[in-house]
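Regression test attached.
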Amino acid sequence: MEYGKDFRTCSVTGLKVHLPAQNLITINAVTSVVFLLVGGLMALLILLTRWPAVHLLPADLFYRFLTLHAIAMLVAWIIFFEIAGLYFGAAVLLNSRLAAPKTAWLAYLLMLGGAAMVAVEILRGRADVMFTSYVPLQASPAYYLGVILFAVGALIGCGVFFGTIVIARSEKTYTGSIPLVTFGLMAAAIIAVFTLACGAIIYIPTFLWSIGIISHIDPGIYRLVFWGFGHASQQINVCAMVACWYLLGALTVGAKPLNEKICRSAFVLYILFINLASEHHLLTDPTLSSAHKVANTSYFMYAAVLASLIHAMAIPAAVEVAQRKKGFTRGLFEWLVKAPWKEPGFSALIFSLLMFGFLGGITGVVIGTEQISIRAHNTWMITGHFHGTVVGGTTLAFMGTAYYLIPLITRKQLVGKSLASIQPFVFGIGITLLSVGMMTAGTLGVPRRHWDITFADSLFPFSFDPSVLMFVSLAAVGGILAAVGGAMFVGVSVSTLLFGKKMA
Amino acid sequence: MEKEKQGEEKIPTWQLFFDDFFLLFLLGITVPTIIYLVWGLFEFANAPIYSP
Amino acid sequence: MAITSPERVWWKPADKQEKTWITIAIIWCVILTIMMPLMHIIGKQNPSSEPLKISPMNFGKLANEFIDKYKVGEEQGIPVVHPPEGSDVYLVGKMWSWSPILELEAGKRYKLHISSMDLMHGFSLQPLVTNFQILPGHDNILNITPTTPGVYHIICNEFCGIGHHTMVGKIIVK
């Protein structure tokens, strides 16, 4: 047991912070914000292109930047931040040393190198294939290699997380069961292993195909395995986001889970069943049977929906109980009205919960049925749905968490607290408008991944109902507001890292 | 809050199950692998192929 | 709290309010679970249930035979075909067109076969907003009965290269 020189004691929480863990959390979190900036810039450019009034980029750059936007956000920003969260949950929350810090650095370098390779290949125009890179569309070998390196790095990071929990247990740095937040992150890490395994199963053969060693990859099988990677990665995000909700509840109002058994059961349901949601992408595909589709998206996936419904009650209930204990007992809602809305972590928690639940989650369950998928598949309804979940839900929850994580870990005082206070509002309203605009336009037929919905260069003229324009414009306005909100977050984070006053 | 006498109250079996990360890991990998991946691959492998 | 280890034994019965919520949630999920297979059986609007793997070359041959047999005209270089009721109807997606233009009759059943000659495409029928994934090497077989006469357009909503957004086809229902 090497305590003492490698640790400091946090003056705020009293937790022991392993210095190598601190450095790794910091570097992964900083890198995630850099990719958020890249992805956010791309978001603005493609948004201004889809807005017919502006139609900013030419077609080739639009499809290119759309690819980069998705990779930078879905893969780089989110997973780098999650790795930082995993190390926090395992090392800091358990008062433990991080397992194998040198290995964790290797993981970081693999992820960074892989992400850089992918970004470079995309910008060089050698990977205009979208995030999904559906075969027979082919990117350069370096693109696939970059993704593989990133995935290997992330997998190693998960290994470090599990190893840390094992060490913490054997060195008895905590007693009893691990805290709920760490349990939620563990659920995320288990799902991550399934995700990355599917990623390996699909990206390695595809890489070999891109260099000519494998002659053919069946597109149907590609889609099946890819989405085992692609949607499962979103389920990592769900678990990590819910873990953040519990964390933010605790930090902002002192919320305590009403019943640990119930919250943990919900996470176990996620572990077992949430990956089956991957089927949603395949509902209108040929060849796969309806039995496979219905069994995966119905019987089994709804068990995971049950878990979400449990968290949807447990967290607000815990917040309400904590607030009532503080004395806010007047009427039905004083506990909510008098809640610390100026704390960015609290407003982020509430908006993230509401947006994930109502904008993203419910629509996801709705369009994840055979018949409604026929109406929604590949339209902007899908895009609106996942901006509700991943951006409104996960990203905002991560942003809220970062406002506490950065000062706690780097011991630098937050710069721009007043900006941080309103940032969740700006971002939340922006994403709500974006998501609603996209979903409405999508139900009217507007396709995703499409450069020109006026079909100016088509063989046969076609145009959508004119009302479509209103919703596309609404999405654009929402997106611009969200970009401002994103910039505010990046501004506060970077300023804190560079100029924050050192605390005790 | 109950009194915590060392080893006095038996830890419920379900709680022990939830604390067993390895078991949760195994189930979390196996269940989607079989229900989603293996079953799906099986269907693709057995789909009829057109021949003229 | 959620950031600290819970008490030694945390496997405890739930509160009445929590039990109520969870019961409601379980009932709701059971309803959803029953709805999906039920809608499949009684809804009569389902994705393909006839699997068939077919190479683009063979699919192209079948499509050309189909076009030759039932061609009634041409529009902008795309053949227009009028197949009889109950027949196998072929639609080819390729960079960047949908061919042929189908002339169908309202109230009549057809077996639609859709596949791709090259990349993945997204069959998206407007203004009905009916969407199916089209894969090269796989036949998306759908039993359809057009109900309302009119001119319908097919756009592509799966990225298929630089001409993706110009890909528009037609189905005419008489």
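Expected vs. actual: identical. The CA atoms of residues 93 and 116 of chain C lie 5 Å apart.
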